[in-house]
Amino acid sequence: MTSVNRRSVFQILATGIACTTLPEIFATARAQAPSSLRVREDVVSFSKDEKKVASLRAGVAAMKRRSEASQHDKLGWSYWAAVHGTDQTPPRSLQSIYNQCRHSSARPAAHFLSWHRAYLYFFEKVLVQTAQDAGGVAFSLPYWDWYTQPTLPSIFTEGSAKINSLWHQRESTKIDSGSLLKAAFEQRMLLSQNKTRGFSLEVELNPHNRVHGLVGGDMGDPSLAARDPIFLLHHANADRLWSIWINERGVQGLPAAGGPWDKESFSFDVEKTWSILASGVRDAQSQLGYRYEDETWVLPPPISIADKGRDRNADDVVVPEEDNLDLREDPALSHIGNELDDEKEPQKLSAESNRDESVPSASNPALVSSVRVASAPVRVDLAWPQDTAARIADDKTSLPKVELVISGIDVDSLTGRSFTVAALIPDSNGALRRVFITELNTFTLKLAQEHAHHDDPHLDRTKSHAAILRIPIDHVIADTPRATLSRGMSFVLDPGSEDITTPVSIEAVRLMTVE
């Protein structure tokens, strides 16, 4: 194949001419120029180079100007933001291109990480070339490591929108980094399998969703998030975490090569010029030509697979056959493993102490109404109806499928906030172990609303009944001893260290069997 330089590659991109071999062109160019491997820097390092910062700002500003001149210009900022999500009705010609983001709601998304990697890859190419055309220098997207830098980078917050194209209206410029979990790195599989949650879903819910919710503003809404330039650095860091996980776990944690997961196609324009298969984004360095400045493992070195193989009590680490991989991802959950902080004992609410008196106690013991969460965690204790409790206590019967349902949530009151929802399971010593379930924030709730609207286009998303989270908790049910489980379940809604003065009101928290 004829050699192509970087400039000619972008010309192919910009013309909109269909090119089904675009990934091959990039691969050929890299193979002939291995020294061109790009490095996505930490924003702290990136910010020290004034020319790169100026070029990033120039590129964003130029893309925004293109959108002002023509909203659906495929080299414009609004176009690329809408590819991820938009709250406006897309033109008929772009209905297959806009609102593509792969996020989880009731079921996890098999391509949350792979789709966003592809999206960021092509978005970056357009942004960098636009910046260079505006007189800037070449650069690679930096990443914002919220684990170590909990404050938004100053290059995104200084000045105003008039003089700084990276400035955007946000609810907060600081993240409670202590509430960002690292439990995803304990997962050996990318997707849910064998009653494990999988790396993709774990990292999506927390830290990914939590950061979206805490930053707030457009970032707190999946339909608007990509309008905020910090979105790019946020997702670059999520992508970086995937690279770190792959470096440590290897290909055995990924879906089998050549299977259904590999064959998923991502296209970012009608002509399919910007198009790539999931198989083409497995390895950022060898396939896409970039790496991250710091790809250090974020947890203590895990026990090797060989050592695990010698441990009779170790989890099964056999890679499942692709045919057995449910790409819908059964949302089973995994353990965080931390005990409840005795110094921050949550307020306890139970079906007996905080019941809606209009609901007969005999018919709805697994419901707590009028929950209010402020700056302290709230514990919710739920009992079972007598017939369900008897079934659970009987070792000869199968356990029911159960959902935790949190309903009547005022979405607007969660702006700039994020609560962790976890189950509390007592161990043999009586200590409470948390099992992470989800994040309660605007980003998570609006995803649920959008998915509900997709299932029922006539649903009024402005009404409170749309603000409902239904979370399967089969993993918690299966992991809890029957004698303990038959007495009921406990959950905690924890705001972390956030200083919240206005409580968030929830109409009801309940357990529902779904079979």
Shape: globular
What is the strand arrangement across the widest sheet? Answer: 5-7-12-9-10
**Rg measurement, Å:** 24 Å
Helix and strand content put the structural class at alpha+beta
Helix content: 25-40%
Overall average residue pLDDT: 81
Number of strands: 13
Biggest sheet layout: 5 strands, mixed
| Count of alpha and pi helical runs | 14
Approximate strand percentage: 5-15%
Low-confidence stretches: 1-34, 304-343, 353-362, 453-466
Distance between the termini: 58 Å
The ordered string of helix (H) and strand (E) elements is HHEHHHHHHEEHEHEEEHEEEHEHHEE
Secondary-structure blueprint of this entry?
Elements (H helix, E strand, L loop, with lengths): L5 H10 L6 H11 L5 E3 L2 H4 L3 H20 L7 H8 L27 H22 L65 H17 L14 H20 L15 E3 L7 E3 L6 H5 L1 E3 L12 H5 L37 E4 L16 E7 L4 E5 L3 H8 L8 E8 L8 E9 L5 E10 H14 L13 E4 L1 H6 L2 H4 L3 E6 L9 E10 L2
Helix pairs in contact: 4-6, 6-8, 7-8
Quick summary:
By secondary structure, this protein is of the alpha+beta class.
Structural description of this entry:
There is one protein chain. The chain has 515 residues and is an alpha+beta fold. The strands form 4 sheets. A 5-stranded mixed beta sheet has the order 5-7-12-9-10. The protein has a 4-stranded antiparallel beta sheet with strand order 6-13-8-11. Helix 4 crosses helix 6, helix 6 crosses helix 8 and helix 7 packs antiparallel against helix 8. Helix content is 30%, strand content 15%. The N terminus is likely disordered. The protein has 14 helices and 13 strands. It is globular.
